[in-house]
Amino acid sequence: YGGSSTFCRFSLAMAEQCLRGEELRARHQAALLKLRKKALREKARAELAWLDHQKRCLENLQDSKGASAMAAKQHKILTELKQEQAEIQHLQNIYRAAHQERKLLLKQQREILMMQHSTAQLQEKLRNLAG
């Protein structure tokens, strides 16, 4: 039973290590999505600034058709930005839910291992009392 106790401690250590790894992966995933969101905003901001510049040039040249085309492109970029932001938010929600599920499973595994360890200790005490 000493071996069983050692195995229990090893299993608990492994569950703890898995939990720490899961926390680290979740932080990395969140950071990556945050960077993706920031890059997306910066790209859209640059594209919109360029289109705004082109639109003003066309307005100065009194090219209303070209200026309205630039406005339509700006609208398209904003729409795409909103769609991609919604996709990122959806991914964040999925990753968060999956992380919580894995974290819960690991905690349950840890609790089971702790109960097994406690049970093994009690059985050992009973054997010592009986013997």
Write down the secondary-structure element order. Answer: HH
What integer value in Å does the Rg equal?
29 Å
Number of strands: 0
Average pLDDT score: 87
The global form is rod-shaped
Number of helices: 2
Q: Which structural class should the secondary elements be placed in?
A: mainly alpha
Please tell me the total number of domains. 1
Q: Give the fraction of residues assigned to helices.
A: over 70%
Instruction: Please give the alpha-carbon distance between the first and last residues.
Output: 15 Å
Q: In terms of per-residue confidence, which ranges show pLDDT below 50 for 5 or more consecutive residues?
A: none
Strand content: under 5%
Give a quick account of the main beta sheet: strands, pairing sense, barrel closure. none
